[in-house]
Amino acid sequence: MSELVPTLDEDLEEALAGPAAVDGTGVPGIRRARAWLTRAAEPGSVGLWRWVDDVGPVAAVRALRAGTAPEHARALVGVRAEEDASLADLRRAERCGARLVVPEDDEWPALPLHSLTVAVVAHAGEPEQADRTTALVPPVALWVRGTARLDEVADRSVAVVGARASTAYGEHVAGELGHQLGERGWTVVSGGAYGIDAAAHRGALAAGAPTVAVLACGVDRPYPVAHSAVFARIADTGGLLVSEWPPGAAPHRHRFLVRNRLIAALTRGTVVVEAAARSGAQATARRARGLGKEVLVVPGPVTSAMSVGCHELLRDEETGARLVTGAAQVVEAVGGLGTDLAEPPERPAGPRDGLSDLARRVLDACPVRVGVSAERLAAVAACDPLEAMRVLPALELADLVQWTGTGWRLTPPPKRREGHGAGG
């Protein structure tokens, strides 16, 4: 006897009659309602999110299907209101090892995504139909592929983004950042694209650390296809594939612009490794600044077209961008106050380090070839001969000066080997 499958309307009615919040397993109606919304309405709409947040996902879906929803919400859904693939989407996700994470779940990354809610409240006076590609709006749900918990993976995470048409320099830096951040216990979040994104993901994977790829298509439909193996490895080794679109969704161009806000929101800060004058990486960085997150930039050669966007971010005072050159500086910027400080860069020690002012003056007075007396050195160094005699032995021990038998001079540099490197 075949199993009776409840219809969408039956699940919605049960959800309305049940508890207001989802428990550990989740009320099917609420989860199914949010699954329906991810396919029916393109994410990024301020007006739709406000309305769903106000009336709840179940009541919103019922109103959209009945044609009683507000006009702006019905306009965003259009003919999709008559379709229902929610159950098929949930089953398709299950078959590829994915699941739908909703705000009612314990796994929901509430803390990092709260910045999107704050942004919506801060722009309460703006039009409901703001540009979806730039609006800072929370997602109604997230499709997640992988075994790790989304909230735990996102807790200590950094976005590393950059150009698709990257240079060898950029890919090297991104790979090093991904590896070093992973070694320090940080999750690398990126978009899974060619170039910088892929290099950052691979660096984290090489360190055996989790990494998150935020996709502009279904989690069962990796794009670009050439990265299928990388995406599979991410999902199978403690990382996650995350998307606002249901399984099977195609990677339409506008969706890449919409998902950028999610990369910025899930993380504590965004690192831009390479970016052209116009790039998605720049857009992600500006969204991060709009959410109050750190914007970090790796400088590049001033002659490189792939670093123009990076340098513009550093020049723009409104972004508050900070220059970073390695993972330690990134962690210092996004980590805990006073606990994730970067070590100062090592400065090569020289034989003159630590010399007193008198010793420096006497050393500078020494000739290169002919030795001279302490009295002559004292005259040039503007000191007493006895003072010069007091510092000369220490300078000799440091191999800075040499006694010739008749006077003092600078120690000659080591002789170069005869014929070294010569052709013939």
* Level-2 CATH architecture of the largest domain: 3-Layer(aba) Sandwich
For the record, the count of structural domains works out to: 3
SS-derived structural category: alpha/beta
Say what oligomer this is.
Answer: single chain
User: How would the global form be characterised?
Assistant: elongated
What percentage of residues falls in helices of 4 or more residues?
Answer: 40-55%
* Sheet of most strands: 9 strands, mixed
Beta-strand residue percentage: 5-15%
The topology string of helices and strands comes to HHHHHHEHEHEHEHEHEHEHEHEHHHHEE
* End-to-end distance: 92 Å
Kindly report the spatial arrangement of strands forming the biggest sheet.
1-2-6-5-4-3-7-8-9
Give the overall average pLDDT: 89
Point out poorly predicted stretches.
20-26, 420-424
> What's the total helix number?
18
The Rg value, from CA coordinates, equals 31 Å
Number of strands: 11
> In the CATH scheme, what's the topology name of the largest domain?
Rossmann fold
User: Tell me, what is the CATH class of the largest domain?
Assistant: Alpha Beta
Layout of SSEs?
Blueprint: H1 8-17, H2 28-40, H3 46-55, H4 57-66, H5 71-77, H6 86-95, E1 98-101, H7 110-122, E2 142-145, H8 150-155, E3 157-161, H9 168-183, E4 187-190, H10 196-206, E5 211-214, H11 228-236, E6 240-243, H12 253-266, E7 269-272, H13 280-290, E8 294-297, H14 308-315, E9 322-323, H15 327-334, H16 357-365, H17 374-381, H18 385-397, E10 401-403, E11 408-410
Helix pairs in contact: 1-2, 1-4, 2-4, 2-6, 3-4, 9-10, 9-15, 12-13, 16-17, 16-18, 17-18
Molecular structure report:
This is DNA-processing protein DprA. Pfam families: DNA_processg_A (PF02481). InterPro entries: DprA, DrpA_SLOG. It comes from Geodermatophilus maliterrae. Belongs to the DprA/Smf family. The chain has 424 residues and is an alpha/beta fold. It folds into three domains: 8-140, no CATH class; 144-334, Rossmann fold (3-Layer(aba) Sandwich); 357-410, Arc Repressor Mutant, subunit A (Orthogonal Bundle). It has 18 helices and eleven strands. Strand 4, helix 10 and strand 5 form a beta-alpha-beta unit. The relative contact order is 0.09. The model is unreliable at 20-26 and 420-424 (pLDDT under 50).
